[in-house]
Amino acid sequence: MSRKRRASGWGASAGKSAQLSPPTPDPSPPLASLAGGGEITPSALYRLLAWLSPAFPVGAFSYSSGIEWAVEAGDIRDAATLKAWLAVMLAEGGGYCDAVLFAHTHRAATSSDDTALRAVAELAAAFSPSKERHLETTAQGNAFVAAARAAWGCDAIERLQACWDGAVAYPVAVAVASAGHGIAIEPALAAYLQALAANWVSAGVRLIPLGQTQGLHVLAALEPVVAATAARAMKTTLDDIGSAALRADLASARHETQYTRLFRS
């Protein structure tokens, strides 16, 4: 079934007020050429690491994408069940849908197609299975746009702001910034999905709880799932986007009324 519901100012120097120079394209040669043809330069790598770091101010640590309810309900009990749950979320649920939205946003921003950019931004803002998942993707997306615009401003972010006045979903925000700074879609999408998986694993480590080494084992086991999801998403049309992770969608809705909560979703 098509389009099924898914389961989202320059600083001043001391003494004298002065604007910082905006970042410029990196002329250095690429560090690596990916199998899909995407190249990544030192500045592109730097920016992806900064934007998708847990320290970047989007508040990702406060969201669990329904994992908190799944732990409470007993669906997730240990490292093995956490890995199985997250593999489905990545390959068939919210992670996969985010990846498709990311790919289409990046292409629209790269080609300066504001009509297509608005269309995917609108779809992404509406494509959430619950109130909390909508909050999760749009709160992070809006925060990312504000932070990236302040420190890494670019024309693509300005075009997004001009053509779409609604809430910005997180994958749309990261994809626009990546395209605006000339970061190839392949490394940008892979980095986005890895950061998403790492945040989910971090939530599981805190909730089950698990040891840090167990959490790393789960993250390592998800590496091929991330790669396969990115490759599949690159070939998926917006008409074919959809989620088959029903239990994860239900978890995000059930979390809204969960009595004891540490996370916002």
Which features would summarize this protein structure in a list?
265 residues; mainly alpha; Urease accessory protein UreF; globular; disordered N terminus
Describe the structure.
A two-stranded antiparallel ribbon has the order 1-2. The chain is globular and about 45 Å long. The model is unreliable at 1-22 and 24-36 (pLDDT under 50). It has a single domain, classed as Urease accessory protein UreF (Orthogonal Bundle), CATH 1.10.4190.10. It has 265 residues and is an all-alpha fold. It is 58% helix and 2% strand.
Please provide a brief summary of the model:
It is built from 12 helices and 2 strands. With 265 residues, it is mostly helical. β1 and β2 form a beta hairpin.
* SSE sequence, one letter per element: EEHHHHHHHHHHHH
How much β-strand is present in the residues? under 5%
Inertia-based shape: globular
The number of strands is: 2
Number of domains: 1
Oligomer: single chain
Q: How much is the average pLDDT?
A: 87
What topology does this entry show?
Elements: E1 32-33, E2 39-40, H1 42-51, H2 67-73, H3 79-92, H4 94-110, H5 114-126, H6 131-151, H7 155-163, H8 170-180, H9 185-207, H10 212-221, H11 223-233, H12 246-254
Antiparallel strand pairs: 1-2
